[in-house]
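Handoff note, outgoing to incoming analyst
You'll be picking up this chain. Sequence as last confirmed:
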Amino acid sequence: MTKPNTSPTTATATTPATATTPTASATTTAPAAATSTATSAAGGAGPLTRDDIGEFVRAHDIKTIMLGVPDLMGRLKGKTFDAAHFLTRLQSGAEMCAYILASDAHMTPLNGFRLTGWHDGYGDLTAVPDLTTLRRLSYLPHTALLLADAHHHNGTPIEVAPRQMLRRQIDHLADLGWEARVGIESEFLLYRGSPHRLHHNGYRTLIPVSPHNLDYALDHPPALTAFLHDLGHALHQADAPVEAIKTEGAPGQIEVTWPHGDAMRACDTYTIHKHAVRAIAASHRMTPTFMAAPRTGIGSGLHFHVSLWQKNKPAYRTAVGADLPDALQQSLAGLLDALPEMAPLYAPYPNSYKRYTPHSFAPVNYTWGYDNRTCAIRLAGRREHTRLEIRLAGADANPYLTLAAILAAIFHGITKHPDLPHPIAGDAYDTSTLPRALPRTLEDALPDFFEGPLATHAFSPSVVHHYTHTARTEINAHHTHVTDHDRERGFLHA
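Most recent structure output, in case you need it:
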């Protein structure tokens, strides 16, 4: 969550500075991942069949099925099918242009990707439905959603696809007997007016749905209350019931949290949440933004609460007066050692790094501490509810890539046993012996990712090349674009 920043280094007279602040997210630790709507409708757990899907379609009067592949930015890209027709092609999946995994945020066809490009004529990939992800979208009439995995035509998964990258890290931990459970906190800003209107005005006259700090408030403007009600209902109908929804410290800022559960499902739920937020906001003539730093002095985070389990028992369980469990110490050490080399996976845009400012509740260095929200990693909870809150990602991060980096770093800690630095007690922004600082820009972050050994070892050289090229594309766009700030600084004074 967020609240005003009173630090003289970042606050201004006109814009309250905010970033992530206290929350009770992910305090419950579910014994297992929740059962999907589709599985419940089919009458039991396990993989669904064509008949199960057909039963779900009939029971919920579903006429349309959306098939979506999470792209490099974590957005759903795909096609909409007539439900009856879709049932005839469940086994074979659907073909989609492979550039959905090889483009920038504006879906621009780009040179330089090995997966596809002008060099091979932009061929197709196969979107293979994950039948456990079937969700009803109550905000779209008679519509259900299925997530899909991107495969080559020979049936092998595409390794740069975000879901596949996360699945690989989940499997690596499973090979050692570990299960990761995850709860996510999502923050975003909500403004009055349609996306078309805000775009037409060049995003210069942004009016938040609430005019001031409503952190932890229980009295909201009627328009915001109606939006929050519709969002909560839609997520419940999509089998993604929230743990809590609250307003934050920045005007128009909202935080949504979900309980601990299955790692892949947590990211799938968040992806559906972003889709729902945009659709429901549009119906209320509002527009959300998931930028990490949408305005000077305001930041929105995407926090991951992570714990490891073994044989259905919490490996991070702490006891009063006892040392931290080995798995917890190793996880902390791995995160602090490896995540500095993976920043482009959780901070993918030039704007991402503008969130990292002192006394903003966003981290500025790679630190950990006990219940300390000034650190990059907060050791939170007690006893069986102990968990690590990783606070590095902004709202603009792709959840699959962020969690893949987190789990890869934990795997690194468990297998390589790097040294664990001392915890920070007090203000991590003001420590006299500064640990490794976060990169100030995406350009600064890229060499460690591209040249360092950890990301390549955790994923593969081709994955690192793919996301390095994605980052360089964003850097080039940023360098060559003239901004309002350029004109403000130089129009009359150059």
